[in-house]
């Protein structure tokens, strides 16, 4: 049923349904503004009335972060789904935040270009959500993280102010760097309405080779050897799990067919002590497959790339003590996504202790576990600065209160 939240606000909303719950909290309504001015009116209204607002794109990562303090209303970006401008000659594109990554890629491909990002659940994940969660996939090895692609943003602040940061060209150094500030902020500093990205050509050829090695250490050593060579892989990942002996190393190359073939020959020679297990591009779905129902706890570990194997082995020993099955997909640049079949606060605490100060962020856990832990872990000396930024951008704590580091 449709109803007016406030006649002066001028934005209509839908009454929330059970599917709109956020971490066990039921909002009053889901608001879907049609333009930036509508978002501005709504946020100004919500801020003045002390309403707590959760921003939702595709909803694929709405459970990331700490439990929200309150959820009065959901602000949906569903109607912001257009490709605003594709400046193909300049290799940039401006897109609304509610457009899914897959839909954007299909439109860019018509001109032989792409956004060189491969986040989780691209068919449903929106551009704004990917920026807010800073979700990068395996292509980060070659092309960088979200912030390396983002040139500019148009956003609405918590008080209803419409602002811009960055620009629409690659060489732009003017103004305060709002795009980088918004990246990974989990929607606590503003609502992204549009984003401008740098683009890359679609590769003429893409090939993957997978090596089977007898241990995680051997897989890590081969990855490091590839780093030290003149090879230029687009992606590398290590896969391992509790039930399997050894580990897999997947390597992907992109470019002209002849160049890709030459790199494949060289990487096979470099990994001659390992068994070539296949050439299936489907292995790059491995990180997404960790989110199956059997895995109730999922953590992101950030370590030095030379310590991938050691970090997984330490985490595996903790899992074994808790009689927990585990699977890991480690991007060769040092980010490990690790899934466990059980979840307890004690297991998370032991993981963090075993990793000796390395970052361990909980991406998924049951509500009863999230009530007992800070999913982000320690923020260290950066927390006071983060709090001051939050106070400057959203003093009323309107946007996603409590979900970010330290309960910001």
Q: Can you summarize this structure?
A:
By secondary structure, this protein is of the alpha+beta class.
What does this structure look like?
- With 408 residues, this protein is α+β, with helices and mostly antiparallel strands.
- It contains 13 helices and 20 strands.
- It has helices at 36-48, 101-109, 127-133, 140-143, 146-149, 178-182, 216-228, 257-270, 286-289, 308-321, 345-354, 367-370, 383-393, and strands at residues 2-4, 12-15, 29-31, 53-56, 73-76, 83-87, 92-96, 113-114, 150-156, 162-166, 191-198, 200-201, 205-213, 235-241, 247-255, 275-278, 297-302, 326-331, 335-340, 359-364.
- Strands 16-13-15-14-18-19-17-20 form an 8-stranded antiparallel β-sheet. A 5-stranded mixed β-sheet has the order 1-2-3-5-4, covered by helices on one side.
- Helix 10 (308-321) runs antiparallel to helix 11 (345-354).
- The radius of gyration is 22 Å and the shape is globular.
- The mean pLDDT is 93.
Layout: helices, strands, pairs:
Blueprint: E1 2-4, E2 12-15, E3 29-31, H1 36-48, E4 53-56, E5 73-76, E6 83-87, E7 92-96, H2 101-109, E8 113-114, H3 127-133, H4 140-143, H5 146-149, E9 150-156, E10 162-166, H6 178-182, E11 191-198, E12 200-201, E13 205-213, H7 216-228, E14 235-241, E15 247-255, H8 257-270, E16 275-278, H9 286-289, E17 297-302, H10 308-321, E18 326-331, E19 335-340, H11 345-354, E20 359-364, H12 367-370, H13 383-393
Parallel strand pairs: 3-5, 4-5
Antiparallel strand pairs: 1-2, 2-3, 6-7, 7-11, 8-12, 9-10, 9-11, 13-15, 13-16, 14-15, 14-18, 17-19, 17-20, 18-19
